[in-house]
């Protein structure tokens, strides 16, 4: 399963990747807007939006890029490890 995480804290990126690896998922994490952000997203199985720590522009660009009929979109207000663990538990188990 492929996952794209948009938002979150810079210092948590390694932990986000480790949690996804424990569920045998490939992950890309974008905490800040990068050049060619829309092209780097691809077509993931799950898009996680941490809405508290991301700009509206970045959320809109991510949602415009993914195909919502193929990709599950989860919006979460908190960007904690427990929140991500709960999301992974419900979608990857």
Given as residue ranges, the uncertain stretches (5+ residues, pLDDT < 50) are none
Overall average pLDDT = 93
N- to C-terminal distance: 11 Å
The fraction of residues assigned to DSSP E strands is 15-25%
Number of strands: 4
What profile does the largest beta sheet have?
4 strands, parallel
Overall, the morphology is globular
Query: Which sequence of SSEs, written as H and E, runs from N to C?
Result: EHEHEHEH
What is the strand arrangement across the widest sheet? Answer: 2-1-3-4
Structure description:
By secondary structure, the protein is an alpha/beta fold. Helix content is 40%, strand content 22%. It has a four-stranded parallel beta sheet, sandwiched between helices. Strand 1 (2-6), helix 1 and strand 2 form a beta-alpha-beta unit. The longest helix has 12 residues, at 81-92. It is globular, with a radius of gyration of 12 Å. The termini are close together.
């Amino acid at each position: 399963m492929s996952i794209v995480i948009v938002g979150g804290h810079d210092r948590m990126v390694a932990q986000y990747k480790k949690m996804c690896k424990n569920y045998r998922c490939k992950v890309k994490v974008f905490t800040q807007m990068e050049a060619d952000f829309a092209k780097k997203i691809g077509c993931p199985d799950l898009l996680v939006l941490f809405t508290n720590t991301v700009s509206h522009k970045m959320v809109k660009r991510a949602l415009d890029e993914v195909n919502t009929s193929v990709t599950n979109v989860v919006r979460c207000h908190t960007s904690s490890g427990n929140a991500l663990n709960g999301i992974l538990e419900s979608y990857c188990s």
